[in-house]
Amino acid sequence: MTSSLTGAAFARRDFLKGGGALIIGFSLCGAVFGQEGVDFVAFAAGPDQPDLKQLDTWLAIHANNTATIFLGYVELGQGSSTALLQIAAEELDLNMNQVKSARLDTNWSPNQGATAASAAIARGGPRIRAAAAEARRALLTLASKRLNAPVDRLAVFNGMVSVVDNPTRTVAYGALLGDKPFHVPFTGTAPLKPVSAYKVVGTRVPRNDIPDKVSGKHVYIQHVRMAGMLHGRVVRPRGQSAYAAGAKVLNVDESSVRNFPNARIVRRRDFIGVVAPNEWDAIRA
Amino acid sequence: MAQLSIRVNERMWKIIATPDTPLLYVLSNELGLQGPRFGCGLAQCGSCSVLVEGIETRSCVTLVGSIGSKSVTTLEGLSSWFARQKGLSKVPALHPVQQAMIDEQALQCGYCYNGMIIKAAELLSKVSQPSEAQIRSAMNGHLCRCGTYPRITKAIQRASRMMPEVNK
Ligand code: FES
Ligand code: FES
Question: CATH: 3.30.530.20, 3.40.50.1000, 3.10.20.30, 3.30.365.10. Which one for A41-205?
């Protein structure tokens, strides 16, 4: 089986849980990667999923002066992953080439509930906006010390912080925090950029999910392949509808699949399926 | 199970499959290709389309054993197929139809676009400047659940304007 399995190694996963920072290195080989590669280095883990009250749950700043934004909504072709990145780029004073999103995963994506009801922008947008503004504030605090200038004398363009009346004194976000966690709580209190100053939001930006979809690189769920995975098909007795409602199963004739030695019958009460390593075997069985 | 050889994207593949396996499952499972995808399995939607000797064909109802020595092209091999057809010295990264789909920001979920692109590429290989009516009738058997038909039409028109340029 040729497959769409790729490996990715995480340089570091940073747990903020329990006060002390525990650094654990691990690699996630054999995981299935559909969207963009994941090269972030730090995020905050709560008791069982990322802690929404930590800034590191929402974004990471890399040494190359780019940012990874952790989105909690699925890109379904509605374009929200691009729009949410626009919101983040705007508040951070980055350009669109400097932001990307991490593929959604319950291990590291902030849980923002279901992607439905046009909520990705309506509910997700304000959170991303607030988180990005808070990150900018934290970065400016660091820059203020580095450049020895008060925060209100600092300006940012494409992630380069400079002193307003002395533009030769600059430092990049990446140099301030590159690939390290913020380790600060997400309070939602940072001042937001006024809409009148917007440069990115409100402009037309090409959707970032489209190129992979037209070239066949995007992994749809039908092409997800895990090592050792079996293919399956549901068998519905006559009169049974979804979730095994309706007709009850009286007995299963296991010998009906004997022509397919690798196929097996799976039964959970009134739910019956057939699995086999070969998809066509599962279908025929 | 039998050993079969098939030519896909100008490469010979040896596979083990029963000859009555639909080509689609061989392409996705044995060859790991992600262009053609299962939509209906009944030749109704076109999301599984491939080119067989340049003709748009539903791989969900085409038995692998019936392919014989014919050449199969999937979305992944479309730009090379196009380059060969046009005698281009260099294979472009994308077929003009693929580029036009990006330029028009045509798709939403994109699930149906394998078939849309394959069918449009077939159309433009026969009629380089199709009328809107010709586009509509050619694309008639391809379904888009997201309803992006107007942009598909526009993108094909855009691609058709790009065709003469690549001929130069
Ligand atoms: S899956 Fe083949 S036409 Fe729908
Ligand atoms: S773009 Fe979603 S089905 Fe066509």
Answer: 3.30.365.10
